[in-house]
Design brief:
Shape: globular
Radius of gyration: 21 Å
Order of helices and strands: HHEHHHEHEEHHEHHHEHEHEHEHHEH
Strand content: 5-15%
Helix content: 40-55%
Number of strands: 10
Distance between the termini: 52 Å
Largest sheet: 4 strands, parallel
Number of helices: 17
Length: 392
């Protein structure tokens, strides 16, 4: 049956298409390598090679918990109705383009992103949804080896969120028509990230010291599940798989020692990197300074995330020149709570430290803290103005 298209969504699509084609957006593209196929709600780019005098690109992104207040919508509706999801996706992009003078690139692509719980759901972890914050897991599913032995590799059509993902892909594709494309979700979470939440945070950290073989069995299951799922995804889309992403907020020191990362976790990341030929993006918001030498050994690493607790100067010295650095400031401390002088001094310090490295700066994951007030958006705009002044 032919779909009745929502006229409000069609109008938003027209406006968004104007933004994609705008001269401002075309100019932003020159700061990044291929800006397409960033398959999630917070766009990221791989910065181009630069000199000390070259501009430093920077981006701004709000967390969905804050977007729900800024644009006044329920996240339960956002994650249950594909047309509502598309409408808010377009509204977010238009608001960002019109209110934040950053270097985010807008492409003729729609994304489908259900948050950090997507792969956990596919692996069988039960999910709970909320109206004003992201969904999260209800409980861990692996209490002992018997639970692990009972698990089956996920089904591309039926496991967890997969029926919803296919529904969203179908609806968004109908709206996209010939004007846009729809990016089918990717499996982006790293093996240890998923193993930790399947098993439990404290439980797996103890296992790494006392039950190493059990941890390896769990990581083997997760890694193989990803490989199988990715093969089905490429067959479904008729594409070739040439890279993977490794999102790992759980990899953090001192929670994890260098030996645990090198000997237990890294071999499975390297296995994926070697098999896929490239790691497009390695991410952890934790302190990963002490792991940088090891991470740098991943095959054809394109972009490394340097979070607020990680030493940016050490990343500049350690990572290969071919690896872009995704430097993220602390949104609360460095923007919301910072004075203009503090912002300016930090931004100048970043530029002095980064010198001619290929890096971009992110102020993202802004969340609601108490009652929403428009002064928060004004504070972000102040940071953006200072970043434009410093990084130009």
């Amino acid at each position: 049956m032919k779909r009745h298209f929502d006229p409000d969504i069609l109008r938003l699509m027209d406006r968004y298409q104007e933004i994609v084609a705008s001269s401002k957006n075309q100019k932003r593209k020159t700061l990044w390598k291929d800006p397409h196929n960033w398959n999630r709600d917070m766009w990221r780019g791989i910065p181009v090679e630069r000199t000390i005098q070259s501009p430093v690109p920077f981006t701004i992104a709000l967390d969905n918990s804050l977007w729900s207040h800024v644009l006044d919508y329920s996240l339960k509706d956002y994650y249950s109705d594909p047309e509502f999801f598309l409408k808010q996706q377009l509204r977010k992009a238009i608001f960002s383009f019109e209110n934040f003078d950053d270097d985010t690139v807008y492409t003729n692509e729609f994304y489908i992103w259900f948050g950090v719980i997507t792969e956990l759901s596919i692996l069988g972890v039960p999910i709970e949804w909320f109206s004003n914050k992201e969904g999260w897991i209800k409980n861990r599913i692996i209490k002992d080896e018997a639970d692990l032995a009972a698990l089956s590799h996920p089904d591309f059509r039926t496991s967890g969120l997969m029926p919803k993902i296919h529904q969203y892909y179908e609806v968004l594709s109908e709206y996209a028509g010939e004007r846009f494309s729809v990016m089918f979700p990717e499996w982006v979470r790293g093996p240890f990230c998923l193993a930790m939440h399947m098993r439990g945070v404290s439980e797996i950290l103890v296992d790494c010291m006392l039950e190493e073989e059990f941890v390896r069995k769990l990581l083997r299951f997760v890694t193989d599940s990803k490989k199988r799922w990715d093969k089905e995804r490429t067959a479904f889309l008729g594409q070739k798989l040439t890279s993977c992403n490794l999102y790992n907020d759980e990899i953090d020191c001192p929670s994890i020692s260098p030996d645990i990362y090198k000997n237990i976790i890294f071999p499975y990341e390297k296995e994926l990197a070697d098999e896929y030929g490239s790691v497009k993006y390695w991410h952890s918001c934790g302190n990963t300074t002490i792991f940088q030498n090891q991470i740098n050994k991943l095959t054809n690493l394109k972009l490394y995330h340097c979070g607020p607790w990680t030493d940016f100067g050490n990343a500049v010295k350690t990572m290969d020149r071919s690896v872009g650095i995704d430097l993220c400031v602390n949104p609360q401390k460095d923007v919301v709570e910072a004075s203009e002088e503090q912002m300016r001094n930090q931004l100048k310090g970043i530029r002095e430290t980064g010198r001619d490295a290929a890096y971009g700066v992110r102020a993202d994951a802004f969340m609601i803290n108490g009652t929403y007030n428009e002064s928060l958006i004004k504070k972000i705009q102040s940071w953006s103005a200072l970043a434009r002044e410093t990084f130009a």
